[in-house]
Write a structure and sequence with these properties.
By secondary structure, this protein is mainly alpha-helical. It has 14 helices and 5 strands. Helices cover 54% and strands 7% of the residues. The mean pLDDT is 96. The structure holds adenosine monophosphate and tryptophan. Tryptophan (TRP) binds next to strand 1 and helix 8.
Length: 332
């Protein structure tokens, strides 16, 4: 069986990094795999969230996913907190994962920053919940951006440790699917920082909700260096902002970075940015329009999530039962 699971946090608008690193691939992979996609509201509360904003973001992110082409009929789209298997399995995995494994997680170090003692315990065990998300469905493949690679390695370690501790062959070892030319989209203001929902500058990212004129302005103002574009990818090695824009262009038109360099060799960034703007708007404008339509029909979006949760529950139930039996919990 080839089954996909992936998730996205409802902590704000989706941006071009989410889209190129993950969601666009989620959509393409639907043709080949059984797909389960999840808005991970339980992961979102590892940092404090305003309840009303969390509710609104959960609906909005679900609407963006539908607008981007996630098919909730052939696949499943739901929000994590509606399926209790995630929390149940996460507890068991808290008892499998070792402190030493979690201490190595770079995302925790980045997010906790200097105030490690004040980070929530939830933020620390975040990767265990992520493993539970995936393994509650015995998913085999997980499409994500580059930043999630280490978490997926931990998921494999947990599956392996569980199987070996109990002498079973219960959980598969998941394969990460990190696809395309933009697996790590960087900020438009600083080519060494990841494009992220939490960047205080909105000009650092392109949101899926941005109207065309705002996309154009953000690309025009994106940081670059004064040199023209190089003819080969080697010429981008020490130019993070240039490399980022070329990578975005390549991903948007399904070309390689080498192809894009060949095409724009010697061009000024002003010319390249115009072409990039046109490409970005052509790809994003239909998604933005569909999303706006869905935001006016939130009852529909909620019904999709509820139907998804019901179908997710019935897939996860036999797995939870199997795990309870293996661990030695009495049957309900
Ligand atoms: P998040 O917004 O952290 O919930 O991420 C949802 C998905 O988008 C994950 O698969 C991430 O790896 C991916 N992602 C987030 N930010 C970026 C980025 N700047 N570049 C590429 N992929 C990203
Ligand atoms: N941690 C992921 C992120 O922030 C989101 C996520 C939660 C996820 N559970 C998952 C991704 C399971 C893939 C599979 O990007």
């Amino acid at each position: 069986m080839r089954r996909i699971f992936s998730g996205v946090q409802p902590t704000g608008n989706l941006h071009l990094g989410n889209y190129l690193g993950a969601i666009r691939n989620w959509v393409t992979l639907q043709a080949e795999y059984e797909c389960i996609y999840c808005v991970v509201d339980m992961h979102a509360i590892t940092a404090a969230q305003d309840p009303a904003e969390l509710r609104a973001s959960t609906r909005e992110v679900a609407a963006s996913l539908l607008a981007a082409g996630v098919d909730a009929k052939t696949g499943i789209l739901f929000n994590q907190s509606q399926v209790s298997a995630h929390a149940e399995l996460a507890w068991i995995f808290n008892c499998i994962a070792r402190l030493g494994w979690l201490n190595r997680m770079t995302q925790f170090k980045e997010k906790a920053g200097k105030h490690r003692e004040n980070a929530s315990v939830g933020l620390y065990v975040y990767p265990n919940l992520m493993a539970a998300d995936i393994l509650a469905y015995k998913a085999t493949h997980v499409p994500v951006g580059e930043d999630q690679k280490q978490h997926l390695e931990l998921c494999r370690d947990i599956a392996q440790a569980f199987n070996s501790q109990y002498g079973v062959d219960c959980f598969p070892l998941v394969e990460p699917l990190i696809l395309g030319e933009a697996t790590r989209v960087m900020s438009l203001r600083d080519g060494t920082e990841k494009m992220s929902k939490s960047d205080p500058s909105d000009h650092a990212r392109i949101n899926l909700t941005d109207p065309p004129d705002l996309i154009a302005r953000k690309i025009r103002r994106a940081r670059t260096d004064p040199d023209p574009l190089p003819g080969t990818p080697d010429g981008l090695a020490t130019r993070p902002e240039a490399a980022n824009l070329v990578g975005i262009f390549a991903a948007l038109c399904d070309a390689s970075v080498a192809d894009v360099c060949r095409r724009f060799e010697g061009a000024q960034f002003s010319t390249f940015k115009e072409a990039l703007t046109e490409l970005a708007i052509a790809e994003l404008a239909p998604i933005t329009a569909e999303m706006q339509r869905l935001m006016d029909d939130l009852a529909y979006v909620e019904s999709v999530l509820q139907d998804g949760a019901e179908r997710a529950r019935s897939l996860a139930r036999p797995v939870t039962r199997e795990v309870q039996e293996i661990v030695g919990f009495l049957a309900a």
